[in-house]
Structure formats: C-alpha cells, structure tokens
Design brief:
The chain is mainly alpha-helical and about 80 residues long. It is about 30% helix and about 5% strand. The protein is built from four helices and two strands.
C-alpha cells in the first residue's frame, strides 16, 4: 500500500524508512485526501468534514458510521 500523506498530519506509524505511513488528521484533511482512504467515497468524505471537530479517535469512531475502523485506525488520527 502506498504511503498516505497530507491532512496536516505530523504523526507517523512506528518504524522508519520505506512503508512509513503519515496518518491523516480527520479534523484537517481535505475531501480529496479523505477519499484516498479505503472505503471513503465522496459522500462519506463530505459527511466526515461536516461532522467536525472530533475530540479524539474514539469520538470519531462513535460518530463516523459505515466504515471499517480496523483498516482505517492505522491510517488516521485526530488532533
């Protein structure tokens, strides 16, 4: 899977070098950036943006329905 970039993210997954993924900040990512995530299409990206701000990842999980969090959790953050 290619690295995900953008969204004002500064955190990275553990490790360095090839394969390091910059997490997308759900409170700052653009619609286009959100749509790079697996399972996030136009309508879901719009919904994520309109429901901002999220206080933490648990808040986002409770409010963003219809996504596979097992996959997304490693790719997103909330700041």
């Amino acid at each position: 899977m290619p690295p995900v970039t953008g969204g004002g993210g500064t955190g990275t997954s553990p490790g360095t070098g090839a394969g390091t993924v910059t997490k997308l900040n759900l409170n700052k990512a653009t619609k286009t950036e959100l749509m790079t995530l697996p399972g996030i299409a136009d309508a879901k990206a719009t919904s994520i943006i309109s429901d901002r701000p999220y206080t933490d990842l648990d808040d986002a999980k409770a409010r963003i329905k219809g996504v596979v969090w097992g996959t997304l959790e490693a790719l997103v953050k909330v700041e």
